[in-house]
Amino acid sequence: MRVRLKDIAEDLNLSKMTISKVLRGQTDISEATRARVLQRVRELNYIPNISASSLRTGQTRTMGLVLPALGVPHLAQIAAGISKTLSREKYELIVSSSENDLETEQKQIGIFLSLQVDALLLVSLQETTFFFEELQGRTEMPVVFVGSRPSGVTEQYVGLDEEEVGRIACEHLLQSGCRRVAYIRGSHSVSGDMRSRGYRNALRRNGIEVQPDLIIETMSPQQSEYQRGCEAMERLLSHRRRPDGVMTYTDMLAVGAMDAASRSGMRIPEDMRFAGCGNDPLLCHMRIPLTSVDTGGQDLGERAGKLALRLVGHPKGKGVRWALVKPKLVKRRSSEGSR
Amino acid sequence: MRVRLKDIAEDLNLSKMTISKVLRGQTDISEATRARVLQRVRELNYIPNISASSLRTGQTRTMGLVLPALGVPHLAQIAAGISKTLSREKYELIVSSSENDLETEQKQIGIFLSLQVDALLLVSLQETTFFFEELQGRTEMPVVFVGSRPSGVTEQYVGLDEEEVGRIACEHLLQSGCRRVAYIRGSHSVSGDMRSRGYRNALRRNGIEVQPDLIIETMSPQQSEYQRGCEAMERLLSHRRRPDGVMTYTDMLAVGAMDAASRSGMRIPEDMRFAGCGNDPLLCHMRIPLTSVDTGGQDLGERAGKLALRLVGHPKGKGVRWALVKPKLVKRRSSEGSR
DNA sequence: ATGAAAGCGCTAACAT
DNA sequence: ATGTTAGCGCTTTCAT
């Protein structure tokens, strides 16, 4: 049988209460007893039963994170950031994946509710607030949205400043001397639209007209991102007036685009500069080191973790609202030098 | 306040017990009552308190998985495989990451023990059995090692047949007509050694002598894997007699090697065939589609999940022992055709 | 400084 | 077919 408080108590001829107090760091215990207890606790390898303590206190010092998928670097960074922040306050993070499925996400949330975690952090797939409004009625558990949010949610949200992503990439290329900056975007998405807005604004602010044919949507879902990058580039190269700078929605699109450009005899960065997005450690250090917008998963996670910590124990609706994390540009050779 | 069994019971003028029985699918309840209860349960959005039920039953229908990192495709596949298998039996998986840190791993294991999960699945960093021997004394919780194991562990282990990884890659290249197969391996590791053995055996079985200078170790940790692949290839190209087939420890090494080979005028696959390892969806669909050994993360996860399910409730030491999952070769253009 | 009693929400075992 | 009792391991409250 597992060691319980009672076992330690009987072993030392003390009451359960004394052991419990020692373990929770209460101060009304003599130093001598404290030492004896701690010693024996270690010897017997006592593991507290969170179920029991949770049942009594309503707390688990544990938070739950639901991600659309494991295996995605950006999401992993978010998780790492949260985990790091929580552990500073002696909270632990447990994760589960919704496998990009809306219903699975709801199920996973249900499990965390059942497990009595102290707060819920969600990189949510839900597009509406419907599910969460229902949730409000059932529980007072704090919920923090990270990186994405159902439309309409404005509180308890930590996100990336997507418009800024588009802006800094474009601004950087312009400052490197580019005049015709193309944007290879992914398929339609809210973040895609916002980055696109940042891109347009940067152009306008620099007195450059937005050219619709320099914005390429790549959405054939059968093709790999690499291929889509290649094809987008080929379309851009077929223009009468070719772009002299290219930014992309993801790093892999940039890798494909750079390859296609190289094959056509373009020199990078001399003839054409590139900026990707994601700052993927694998992809950014391939052939031509790729300038990329770091979408700051770790930062995002840390902010979200802090928000969750502040929410714990606060009556609902109190406390902090939301934060937008700024992306950072990481310059590498693909956009080096200026003209 | 959250809805409890008691609330539903009072609401319907029944006892807690009746509600509990309905929710657990006991059969000694009239259809009429069952229907009433289920209806009200849904209306009130009842969420069971696992802490309470766990305290009573000692079960949570939840298992814990500790990974060295999130964000790694192979590990994510393992997690997905486990999760899929468990959910068929109404078990749930929660995950945590040790961030490649030995002590963090032990801490995460402790949390899962505290949370009373029904079994523990570990892609463990521990190299010795020391920690787990200590664990044995504290708990009867079933532990399954996945993909890696402390030396000496032979039970409750589901792993990849690493020797076979090396063998099938080499065998495939030989069957495609290669006579001088090189192996670009990573830095030293147990799995690296085993794959190397598979490679050597395949050569020998085909009556080809192992040439030490065709085995390249790439271990400069500052460099990216891509660069290390390039450099390894350059070394191979400088040999008097160049290889006509190259296999690598990872897909990224193959991508780098292929690029270096292409730059030197080698045609792929005509002059030189390549096989990577990992079957990374991103990397295998770049420039030249890459033949790769699929290390079957999903399979591994499913087998591990099944093993864990069989272990639950069994007295320790009973039940299944271990399984080795066979890798599968996925052929693509980099090794196409024969001579 | 230490301990006794009660109860968190649930369910096993046993009535009725 | 439904309900009663007791207790899982812990902590809150209130003695001593």
List keywords for this structure.
339 residues, alpha/beta, 434 Repressor (Amino-terminal Domain), Rossmann fold, six-stranded parallel beta sheet, six-stranded mixed beta sheet, 15% strand, elongated, DNA-binding
Number of helices of chain A: 12
The level of helicity of chain A is 40-55%
Q: What is the correct CATH architecture of the largest domain in chain A?
A: 3-Layer(aba) Sandwich
Radius of gyration over C-alpha positions of chain A, nearest whole angstrom: 26 Å
Gross geometry of chain A: elongated
Task: Indicate the CATH class of the largest domain in chain A.
Answer: Alpha Beta
Described by strand count, sense and barrel closure, the largest sheet of chain A is: 6 strands, parallel
Structural class call of chain A reads alpha/beta
CATH topology of the largest domain in chain A: Rossmann fold
Which homologous superfamily in CATH is the superfamily of the largest domain in chain A? Response regulator
- Output mean pLDDT of chain A: 92
Number of strands of chain A: 12
Q: Determine the strand fraction of chain A and express it as a percent band.
A: 15-25%
Architecture blueprint of SSEs:
The structure is a homodimer of 339-residue chains.
Chain A: H1 5-12, H2 16-23, H3 31-43, H4 50-57, E1 62-67, H5 73-88, E2 92-97, H6 102-114, E3 119-122, H7 130-138, E4 143-146, E5 157-160, H8 162-175, E6 181-185, H9 190-205, E7 215-217, H10 225-237, E8 245-248, H11 251-263, E9 273-277, E10 291-294, H12 297-311, E11 322-325, E12 328-330
Parallel strand pairs in A: 1-2, 1-3, 3-4, 4-5, 5-11, 6-7, 6-8, 8-9, 9-10
Antiparallel strand pairs in A: 10-12
Helix pairs in contact in A: 1-2, 5-12, 8-9, 10-11
The structure holds a DNA duplex (16 and 16 nucleotides).
